[in-house]
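dumping these here so i dont lose them again. two proteins, back to back, each one seq then structure tokens. dont judge the mess
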Amino acid sequence: MLLINEELTRELDERNVLCQVNFVNNFTSMRLVPQELRSIYDKVVAAQRINEDEAAQLYRSRDINALGLIANVVRERKNGNRATYILNRYINYSNICILSCQFCAFGAKKRDSHAFELAIPEIVETTRKSLEFGITEVHMVGGLHPTLPGDWYLKLLRALRALDPALHIKAFTAIEVRHLAERIFKISIQRTLEMLRESGLNSLTGGGAEIFHSGVRDKICRGKETAQEWKDVHRLWHQMGGRSTCTMLFGHIETIEHRVDHLRQLRELQDETGGFTGFVPFAFVPETTELKHIKPASGLDQLRNLAVSRIYLDNFDHITGYWIAMTLPLAQISLNYGVDDLHGTLMEERIFHMAGSRTPQEQTKATLERSIREAGRDPMQRDSYYRPIPAIERSQYEAAPAA
């Protein structure tokens, strides 16, 4: 009985100390939050959902550090002190596209000098070499090619799958899926997704969301799928048991209200399906596009957008700081503004670089881990579903390159 009493007393003492620490931390944090944001801070601490008006209020706030503090309440609740990265390879199989989006410097017509189209053996060999460096995911998107036959896509998936059964194939945006279904296979979207999955597809990419507002889309990507059509593809994929990421392209002609509306629609779809693994916002790079007159988003605006997204998207477990668009130093800082993931090694990204991005085209595992540690977080390699890859599994990846 004495032993039990001693253990109970010790447990009560530990709880009391923890309560005191939490009280001090909360009191200190509250002093750093301006009065106009206190009610939002209180809701977030109580794990209550904020509304669209409150999200707009956060966007308009000039107190970037207060936004980071509030966002980090959510980040720490969901992910502790861990920040993740993935070893992956980007492959753009072709930039030939039937569309001419105003914001895009990647797409091309067949006659254009910068048009390209990779052959399946070339893609397979690139992936095989990347497997030797331990990648666990290949991320593959392209333009809406007018003449590639449907069987080409299925052969490509099967060839990649044959390289390594464990390789995660993350490929195709929602509009690519619609293009394949409506123009190439001429079958339903569901059957198209089934065929892609049967051939080796593991998950969909989140590209093509841009900004959901129809007026904005008409000015920056006229002719592209509507927001509803984008959501319908992801909804169907989720109902089939699949997972995907989602995105936002910001910093062009959209308003705060457009951003909030975009986040609202993503949160509602996530409430419905639970199929999104993470949210990846990125700033528009205007340099070589038809919208080159637009001033690029500032670092503060990028941090603000990440923080508000983390606070508002309470049903998302992960927010990614996409270093390829925002630079690695800014992505590192974003780990203190609600971000818990730095994406991946990438290797040879083309879409943002053809638009004028001057960031490196890849990062090493060591660089990503160092950046995470310098930000005060604990680095962890993850898989495509944001699940940590234990050290023993990482050593197996590194010790057994593909044949």
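---- next one ----
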Amino acid sequence: MKDLASISRWLYFRRYARAAEKLSYNKLEVLGPEHEFSLVNNEMKPMPIAEEIVNEYYGKISNALHLTRYAIRIEFPLHIVEIKARNPFNSPELLEESMQAAVTSFLEFITNKYHANLLGTGMHPILRLEETGIRPNDKIAQELSKAFPLRRHGWLNIQSFQLNLPYSTEEEAVSLHNALTHLCAYLPAISASSPICEGHFTPYDDFRLHNYQMKCREIPSIAGDVVPEYISSFNQFRNEVSERYSSDLSNVGVSIDDFADYVNQRNVVFKFARKAIEIRVMDEQECIKSDVALSCFIRSTIRGLLALNDEPLSHKILVNDYNSIIKNGLEAEVLNPKGKTARQICQYFFKLASEYADEKEKKYLWIIEKRIKEGNLSKLIRRRVVNRAQKTTFDEAVICVYSELARCVSDNQPYF
């Protein structure tokens, strides 16, 4: 007989499966973006005032501000806000226009009221953990703190660009999930933007993802290898993935019945409530336009992978290559038979994306091509800081470069 926890989790999936039946998007039909930014002052210091800002903007105490076309949410850390679309977009151009309008409107408010700015990239470069905090009375944080010390960079200093892609049937969901599992093992080679932590260069191209791997180490089943396991059905996913981490958390007194989707820390996650798959592997970029470019690249590449329907690489190869890429980026040596380095694999994916992209998506792919050729944002930040540090102190060089990156948010201009 099933225990009460298992029954509760079964009801959770049943409830959201019914809710999702109301959605009608076809596979890959729309793009659902979520952008995370740090609140910073003119010296790029973190400003842990997200709750104050949202409450002032909204006029009452709330964890989110819901406007007509977008919402602003307070994340775990009080210096980070998430700007997300309330409804997904058919067109990448509309995505860019709408989300940049949201950024511009919010920036105008926080600049005038708090002299604050927004900073993208995967991590705040100079933040010390004592300089931020967790939103008071956050129920998810209260539960997770029973299992994990939340004062880690993996919880308090990571910013991702999350993309939601829809599916309409279980069969579509399975094939989409497995194709994304393949692609997302290599995507950090292009999307890494977190080379600096606490004012120092790190040994990782994508230090956010390194911290992401480590934040749940007390209960390994929550993240697994971070690269998701291939699946064959929803039942298999529930039985072999979500039931396992739900049970492990239950054993230490953590109840996740109302946020089971959130707890899964893999880089590709089912969002049953909205009948979508969420991609979490990407560092936040320097501007909305660059996020849109990643969205176009992912969707067109996935079209190509689904059309080719090649024999999937082993999960072991994907995990090996992913870990190598987090450390070494585009220069990482990989086991994928399509190439010897991550750059060669990304060039293969770019060729596939160019072939399967529609005309609107092709307008953004030049940004990805340039990143593959010249280096991801993480590598560019390193080069710029090193060059500036020849004329000033390292600390001043970091502030100068990240001040330029903050302007990229407001101007919506890629950093090259």
